[in-house]
Amino acid sequence: MTPNRQGEFQPEELLISTIADMLDGLGHVAVGASSPIPGGAALLARARSGGSLRVSMLGSEHHNAFTNGGTELFDCAAQGRIDAFFLGGGQIDGAANINLVGIGDYPQTKVRFPGSFGSAYLYFLVPRVILFREEHTPRVLVPKVDFISAPGTSEPDVYRPGGPYALVTGRCVFTFDKARKGFSLASVHPGHTVDEVAENTGFDFDVSESVDETKPPDAATLALIRGRVADEIAETYPAFATRVFGDNASVA
Amino acid sequence: MTPNRQGEFQPEELLISTIADMLDGLGHVAVGASSPIPGGAALLARARSGGSLRVSMLGSEHHNAFTNGGTELFDCAAQGRIDAFFLGGGQIDGAANINLVGIGDYPQTKVRFPGSFGSAYLYFLVPRVILFREEHTPRVLVPKVDFISAPGTSEPDVYRPGGPYALVTGRCVFTFDKARKGFSLASVHPGHTVDEVAENTGFDFDVSESVDETKPPDAATLALIRGRVADEIAETYPAFATRVFGDNASVA
Amino acid sequence: MSAPLDDLDTLVGRIPDGAKVALPPDYSGCAMAAVRTLIKRGVRDLHLVGVPSVGFQGDMLIGAGCVATLETAAVTIGEYGLAPRFTAAIKAGAIRMIDGTCPAIHAGLQAAEKGIPYMPVRGIVGSDLLEQRDDWIVGADPFGGEDGPLVLVKAITPDITLIHAPLADRHGNAWIGVRREMMVMAHAAKTTLVTFEKLYDGDLLANAEMAAGTIPALYIGALAEAENGAWPVGLFGAYPADDAHLRMYIEMAGTDDGFQTYLDDYVLDRKAAE
Amino acid sequence: MSAPLDDLDTLVGRIPDGAKVALPPDYSGCAMAAVRTLIKRGVRDLHLVGVPSVGFQGDMLIGAGCVATLETAAVTIGEYGLAPRFTAAIKAGAIRMIDGTCPAIHAGLQAAEKGIPYMPVRGIVGSDLLEQRDDWIVGADPFGGEDGPLVLVKAITPDITLIHAPLADRHGNAWIGVRREMMVMAHAAKTTLVTFEKLYDGDLLANAEMAAGTIPALYIGALAEAENGAWPVGLFGAYPADDAHLRMYIEMAGTDDGFQTYLDDYVLDRKAAE
Questions:
Q1: Chain D partners of B51 at a C-beta cutoff of 8 Å?
Q2: A-interface mutation test, from D30, D76, D90, most A Cβ less than 10 A away
Q3: Neighbours of A108 (CB within 10 A)
Q4: Model's pTM, two decimal places?
């Protein structure tokens, strides 16, 4: 990640705060595996929800209310009981298609990613899917993905209450316009520029005349992140918590 | 039930012994609700199996290995993991169709039975379904059932590893011939006659020249029934156990 | 985040007239105290779904005139005999009856649980049940398997699942142990109302042994404490059925007048052990 | 009636070359000690099914040349990085890859559990995954619902489900708590082989709290005790993953030679903590 206002907040804290703002007011947010920043964001939103937000975090024993094994997250989404989820992608394109499979010709891809996980399902069923990928380069944000693990949009006859809501990277926030089937630049993180975003993005996107700066976390938010959220996220992501929050973050 | 050789064994003991003989050598027998005699038979077969027969008895806490709720019995049958099951019927006809719904025109039947339960499924999937109905009268054993809860046989294109194996009543044992789609009288219980069976059966059935007497339980079998089986069945059917075995049968 | 802890009146107040209500059989977790309160309130036009059969609570609700439609594989009060009010209602044509078979009812709920419009089921073909159902269609194996026709059972989505659990906690979780038909019912229904025997002091989900048999608060709309809440039916692991009472019920409910006296004595005047 | 209690060699002796073996992901119950024993035996041509993903055990089996086909929604060793032997095998075209998505794998197993040829699943339409699968067919709602196409996923019936459980008893029952993907795997497979951490002294099914999280012996072909049997992966409720060891593995398995050294050190010579 590129420079930020040193001493004020860390890039991870900005991302946690930015994503959490997208979750306020929701009832139930689920977080997949290997997602410390989205996990932190969900826990932050929960901490300030006054108890109204439920967080289900894969891999967590404290923040996991599921008792029906691996299928429950998916069933729960199909029941309309999950409001937001996070997906990443080895490649993400301008139509919000995501590729979690590999680069090159399938199946013998030159670069192989882990696989599609539940993306080909949750992307259809969870109303607010937030795409998150810290690396913001033309290698990740491509004109057209090599393999569509899950499509960004669907034909009108496909049952699809869900889909992309925003794409958050280490440089900026894009929102997704379903009608236009494309991204718009919503804000650029402090220390980054619109030109830099354009240069590092392989797909076309809309830009309004004046692009906002991504709102930095205020003092109260930072205190919450560094306190309760740091403690809570350390249960599932101890290495992440130590790296970002130092030794103050201990398993509660 | 009609007369028997007083002092030797009770009618219920004969039925338990007779049905148990049909279960020897099997791996897993399931018993539905409200079935004390089939339950006793399964427990008898289990007692003399040397531990190789598994019994799953609905309503029992001791003899119930299911941990996935009400659906497990049916799933387990579809997986081919249940070798024998018992069905009854408000009406049973000569083609082994069973009616658990009612007499008269559906839905406003003159007489209403409880309902089809899982018969319309288990009759297809469990290889050895033993029909059991103590009452042997023309009212029960009819030429044609008024409502087919579950058919005795199916067209060749229907997936049907299961079906009727025998029909045991208070008077006799019929076996079922799938090719001919009809019952044959296999044996008549001690104290009963072929003529009496014919008189009380509303459907046609095959009779060989000499019909055997149903084999009475020997001393060892009776001892097992009155001992271990009586104790075990009392857990699920205390009223039945007290009525048939007296106060000697206590919950183990 | 957690469901409200109601009193019984408030809990059953969440069940509107005309609701499609899923109920477990007598050997599972029956919210009898809630059913009595519901009858007292005078609920009407319920569509009951017995999962997969229904017993005492169904017979009482039918007898009290609360039921428009009954969808179930059977009505049975165990060894005690035929369900008298159900039998009378069928004879009188007083309720709309949707006869099913156990695995198809489970399958319909599992379809709702998975958010799919239907679930294929084996067997059934050749049963007269099939002719009565426009929510069952005969279909073929799309993979061309030679195992013949399947019955495609339409999803069953109850408005409300109403159950009684041995334990619940302050977070709104309810423990049901191995009686997992209630888990599927909770997943399938729009919401689940739970009465419970005892408050569990702690978090059922934080205890690995208890968690395995727990319906998460996520699915539960509200709860109410109801000690002895399954009476006169039994509750698995807690208490057996009240044999004498059920026999008396069968006897009394054999006539319209007798049933009315039963209601007066045990429901409307609440002489019950609640 | 109960399954035999084997030693590890005998247990894995029940897995023939070419078997279709279902494995859970790293956060569930991984029979790592059994996998090492299997590699040592030199098993070949396995068809692995990762339910729904597979981690360390899949990467090792692939690296050791035991795998012909891999069917899974993902291969992931959690935070530690890409699975090195899987990645290398794909690049080399050394295994047949069947890419799936989690709910479709669960659905395929649930179809096998229910003895039906397929299960409908939402989503997926428009994913390139669909084009690779002749065991997924796009179908319509037979009830004419307007919710568009469904994907019909063919049943997945593993020959063997191989898992590690925290507890098992002398009756052959195995406790898995809330990790119920292993319950579905056991129901769906022809048989299930279980290694377990500790012997439970008693009958898991006779304890109402334990029973709720127990796979009945009915589904289990054989068991073997294996203390620390999930190492270096963690076991829920028992011990965490061996972080340092997994990092070392990722490092070593990055090259063919390094992986061979790892095998020599920790599998073939059994320097592992077993």
A1: 1-2
A2: D90
A3: 14
A4: 0.96
